[in-house]
Amino acid sequence: MSDYVKDLIAEVKAKNPAQPEFHQAVQEVAESLAIVFERHPEYRTAKILERIIEPERVITFRVPWVDDQGEVQINRGYRIEMNSAIGPYKGGLRFHPSVTLGILKFLAFEQVFKNSLTTLPMGGGKGGSDFDPKGKSDLKIMRFCQAFMSELFRHIGADTDVPAGDIGVGGREIGYLFGQYKKLRNEFTGVLTGKGLNWGGSLIRPEATGYGSVYFASEMLSTKGKNLQGKMCLVSGSGNVAQYTVEKINELGGKVVTLSDSNGYIYDEKGIDKQKIAFVMDLKNVRRGRMQEYVDKFKGTVYTPVDPKLDYNPLWNHKADCAFPSATQNEINGKDAQNLVKNGVNVVSEGANMPTTLEGVRVFLDAKILYGPGKAANAGGVATSGLEMTQNSMRLNWTREEVDTRLRMIMHSIHTSCVQMADRFGTPGNYVNGANIAGFLKVADAMMDQGVV
Ligand code: NDP
Q1: What is the CA(355)–ligand 1 centre distance, in A?
Q2: Which domains does the chain possess?
Q3: Is 126 a catalytic residue?
Q4: Which of 173, 241, 331 to mutate to test ligand 1, by most ligand atoms within 8 A of the CB atom?
Q5: I need a labelling partner for 442 at 20 to 30 A (CA). Which of 30, 184, 388, 415 fits?
Q6: Could you identify the atom of ligand 1 that is nearest to the CA of residue 241?
Q7: For position 233, what pLDDT does the model report?
């Protein structure tokens, strides 16, 4: 690690205590950029990275609401407006009890680079709340979403800041949030993405992150003259990203044998086929049940509950060719990464944001496997949100084929940028450096053009 990066990380830690995920995200990017600063000292002089690290604006607010029993509840709401150099702030909302300022800052920071990679004009942001939607009635969810938007609406807008979904925020929540925004502002605009199809949403948006992560894996495989046909795949999570990852892997001839939620994971050696993933979609999106039910429905499958005593995740310890972490941050540690490599995995495409620890990333890079970091591999979601914004501005809807073709083209172009930048800066095949450098340069040049603001 260069002295510059060491000093920068020390300062980030001192200034942002108790935000380990944010420190981790900054460190990974800063290490990749060391070579850029050597060749282009002008970015260092202008303190571009230091400015990107400091959010342009952080909004925190009280979210009071009344539950089904008439009891007053108070949650904390956030919106991190990280960087608007290349477009309006753009990034999802996360509702999960683990949400803190540090988690959202790491996600907003990652989002800046990811959005830059998509080729679309979008800045970076992220938001959410420590509200736990699990097990709550639709009515409670609606009341919470309305309370959350009653404050957020003053800070967002179609040309200012355009939130979307993330963990715990899917189509249902976006609907309630949009309804409240429309009521308060008395305007129907593309202020949120992930909307329903008959009120401004885009075809393929729900599928986009999962599909995109599989397209990215296919792009990586194609550099070795291979494809997903017959490949054994491990997928974690069972939410939006995981579901459509499985759907696309099946379509391209691969076989998925795992899925998980926060209680445990299932292993199905016959493969999670079309009929089985339809069951999971109904279980998770309609009945809002737990993955354990999968083994009651499909005989010969195995459920393993989470064991907090283990220092590794057994989901990552099966023989396979490809892994698609699609649940949450830091779900693959150093030991998991070693297990994956040992078991034959040579493609990792991250559907989740920062699912691999710094130690795990080092294992993948040292093993020289095809490792697609989240900010490149899962950028299809926000890219299709960008396409939703374009359709909203034009007031027309593209067909499924048109959006899917554009998504494919964007994933192809992100892959090409990563490969070219990694080559140009002397680390061929290193998608981490490629993504960080390509994402950085576009934002950095825009910031240089726009002066110290
Ligand atoms: P969902 O809420 O739809 O699903 C999340 C899944 O991950 C659930 O299966 C959930 O299990 C599991 N999960 C969440 N937290 C944990 C945890 N601490 N430990 C184990 N499992 C956990 O979210 P998404 O599918 O939308 O998001 C998944 C990941 O993809 C996140 O990292 C998100 O930031 C990233 N992402 C999402 C995009 C999108 O378009 N939705 C775009 C780009 C990235 P349980 O049901 O038990 O909570």
Answers
A1: 10
A2: 3-187 (3.40.50.10860), 208-372 (3.40.50.720)
A3: yes
A4: 241
A5: 388
A6: 25
A7: 99
